[in-house]
Amino acid sequence: MTAARQQRKSPPALSPVFWLALGLAVCGGIFSAPVILAAPSERIVVNADTGLAISGFDPVAYFTDAKPKIGLPKHELRLDGAVWRFRNEGNRAAFAEHPEVYLPRFGGYDAVAIARGVSVPGHPLFWTITGERLYLLL
Predict the structure, then answer these.
(1) Which of 12, 75, 93, 130 is deepest in the core (most CB within 10 A)?
(2) HEC sequence for the chain
(3) Is the entire prediction scored with pTM above 0.85?
């Protein structure tokens, strides 16, 4: 390959202004983690009519089945003032042994809204698992 062709193929060099702007953005906190300003009145999102946490969905199923599944009334567990439902006894036992692993972050409140400083209940059908933690979204 000729020198002229190599020069045309190489990516353009980033200007010092770009690196300065990137450094200021990182130092200024643009890319830093958001501060949680919202203070929801309840620790866990609970349906006021039924007392069910996350609308009766099985919190363990998000991890084991990679999708939300409705829990069954015969596999219930009361924790933190909420009733949690599970698909089977194994999921119930796993949750009872390690609830901190399976509880949705921010108590089931929408993670994006929390980052913006407000508390809005998340919807159990809109979710993500990041860093081995369940987050509900709106």
Answers:
(1) 75
(2) CCHHHHHHHCCCCCCHHHHHHHHHHHHHCCCCCCCCCCCCCCCCCECCCCCEEHHHECCCHHHHCCCCCECEEEEEEEECCEEEEECCHHHHHHHHHCHHHHCCHHHHECHHHHHCCCCCECEEEEEEEECCEEEEEC
(3) no
